[in-house]
Amino acid sequence: MTVELVSVGTEILMGNILNSNTQYLAEKCAMLGFNMYHQVTVGDNYGRMKEVVATAVNRADIVILTGGLGPTEDDLTKEVCAEVMGMELVEDPHTRQHIEEFFHNNIYREIPANNWKMTTVPRGARVLDNHNGMAPGLILEKDGKTAILLPGPPGELYPMFEQQVFPYLETRENASLVSKTLKICGHGESQVEDQLIDLIDGQTNPTLATYAKVGEVHLRITARADEPGKAAALVEPVAAEVKRRMGDAVYTEDEGEILEMAVVRLLTGHGLTISTAESCTGGMVSARLVNVPGASRVFMEGYVTYSNEAKMKLLGVREETLAAWGAVSAQTAGEMALGGAKAAGTDVCVSITGLAGPDGGTAEKPVGLVYMACALKGQVSLARYQFKGNRGKIREQSVMKALDLARRCILAYGRGEELPGQEA
Amino acid sequence: MTVELVSVGTEILMGNILNSNTQYLAEKCAMLGFNMYHQVTVGDNYGRMKEVVATAVNRADIVILTGGLGPTEDDLTKEVCAEVMGMELVEDPHTRQHIEEFFHNNIYREIPANNWKMTTVPRGARVLDNHNGMAPGLILEKDGKTAILLPGPPGELYPMFEQQVFPYLETRENASLVSKTLKICGHGESQVEDQLIDLIDGQTNPTLATYAKVGEVHLRITARADEPGKAAALVEPVAAEVKRRMGDAVYTEDEGEILEMAVVRLLTGHGLTISTAESCTGGMVSARLVNVPGASRVFMEGYVTYSNEAKMKLLGVREETLAAWGAVSAQTAGEMALGGAKAAGTDVCVSITGLAGPDGGTAEKPVGLVYMACALKGQVSLARYQFKGNRGKIREQSVMKALDLARRCILAYGRGEELPGQEA
Description:
Chains A, B: Pfam families: CinA, CinA_KH, MoCF_biosynth. Chains A, B: This is Putative competence-damage inducible protein. Chains A, B: Residues 4-172 form the MoaB/Mog domain. The structure is a homodimer. Chain A has three domains: 2-172, MoaB/Mog-like domain (Molybdenum Cofactor Biosythetic Enzyme, Chain A), CATH 3.40.980; 176-252, Alpha-Beta Plaits (2-Layer Sandwich), CATH 3.30.70; 259-423, CinA-like (Maf protein, Alpha-Beta Complex). By secondary structure, chain A is α/β, with parallel strands linked by helices. In chain A, helix 3 (46-59) crosses helix 4 (77-85) and helix 9 (259-269) runs parallel beside helix 14. The first copy, chain A, has 14 helices and 18 strands. Chains A and B meet through helix 2, strand 2, helix 10, strand 14 and helix 11 of A and helix 2, strand 2, helix 10, strand 14 and helix 11 of B. Strand 14 (299-305) of chain A pairs antiparallel with strand 14 of chain B.
């Protein structure tokens, strides 16, 4: 089955907005096992859109279009698709009611006249209710070809796709797809592939695919079967084997959980509290922890100690340590973590000190050198990295490694083991 | 002049990477005054790529292609374009030397044989040296049509475009383009348009275009003339008029300066130091300040006081204040800022306390309610916002407003005026 994506909108052609819908839809289609050979963007122009849609309908089995479904004269996607597919536009009472309700709920006094444009649908179309906006989505089927028309705003598109389009596409494939994403921290993409190469190459159902993200790798295991239970049963043993091989590097199997959430979950589970002591990352680690809803139960306070004075005053780093080893050293990182935990009265404290550049590097301590430490109930785990990239990249990677260090320390603590890494 | 963009890469069709090059190039082409009607993505497949390129060359004057220029067998862009344009591939000594130097500089012992594939170019092509990678860019001109082949990685594409392609495109337009971006903080896009509508609608040279960003609006003024000096002379009076109308809301005219850089620049200029006292933003403001190279001269320390205890202990917020007004209140924000400045020994301290949700909101204090304060040499400026959106959006907007509050306070201080906003 071949799918083509058509993005509609002059604002995309002008570079006013970044088209991220395409990546989202492409990833979902790949997961469904569809072939995708073309993605096209076209503006709000009837003639050019008609040509693009006709070409797409001709060369693909399914065309997914985004954008151009709104109430203005520029919104032409429905009209163009109806013409290309040879379907007549008719008034749809269900959609009319939905739009009336939308306006009612949003406390408009009167419905602007142009909004009634949205109440017509190609005869025989399947209407996809829009629970996050006005314009409904549509599925048109004719002569073995399918066009799926979706609203452009991601806040409307994503839920509509997840809840209504993905299940429809599964039925088109006569298959149930079940996928599980294992999120892996502490290994690069090629390292993960090396460890799993026999599974990746040898498997056709489920399939395994890796996605490189900043500081982590996502491994998606996808199985298809004639019913969801059977597909899930195919995924599970492979997921278990991956976890056996990768060990603690797998930080979650929950698609919605990001690294800081895993840290907060582990802290909560073990009844631990945390604080942060940051230099070059300047509060990025604490900001990530506070990003987790409910972080207030485990995160107490954070120190951004950019100057040496602040490191001494707030964290009790010794002047001799700074003089002998420098601010960017394992010794300073260790004292920052221990001092931060003490000052904040927390069980855990994670510290970072490093050279994010662009200036300040030396032959001995080049830009990208970052030390970090995790103190946990008086013990300290230390780590040293030499990162590449610009200031932003170095800081981002530092944050991921520091969160991962805290995570691995809590895991070790929970098992009654020594903290991982070099001991202070 | 019509331009079409062709992105080459199966990884884009599979959703493995987000294609941000397209927005970058589209924005540049819009700035140059080109018309763009189509953007197409195609995979690393000879036949399909040939069809896409032939269509593009047929319907556009200039086709800009990105990706597929590397050394592997999958990299076919150059071969396809040469065939479509009817040009013969020949060995290019200059490119061969460049690639030898690249390997030499990157301390490879031997050059892998497949890399010599990159040394051929279509006869008569203009070679664009790649200073950030191996594969050169190419400009092919034949029969009134132009194909511009650029490497896919943004770190190679952007500098090559800025330094070599943009000037080439200017010559194609027989014009020099000069543009200036004014970055505006504190007004929404529609407010900015309202204040400048006569300039936006009435001007054809220069043109004015607004771009909405998170918490700010960028206004681009672009003029064309037969030489750069004349174009700049057209931009300047309009920029001056915009600044006259928008006042302090314009925080920079420097394309490369972002909001936190403007704050650090102003602090440095006035010999002031700063600290931060954050609750719901959890260190995001300090992280932004530390993001500025050289921030260590003005930023001393930051406090992330998520718990009430931390607010009292680290910032000296009074227990009575928290009891009477609550942690999310103007009173607490003011005491946080004054206490932070005192504790850190800085001239300025900016504080934020708010409800980022998703839980914790009440009828009186709903999610999205954020108070912030800027203390400057003992004076305090306060601000209250009711933000919309999810936790992330509320936090992001809070950070922008807090940085902007600090900026406006420093501006007022520099002019010997009272701090702006509601006085404590």
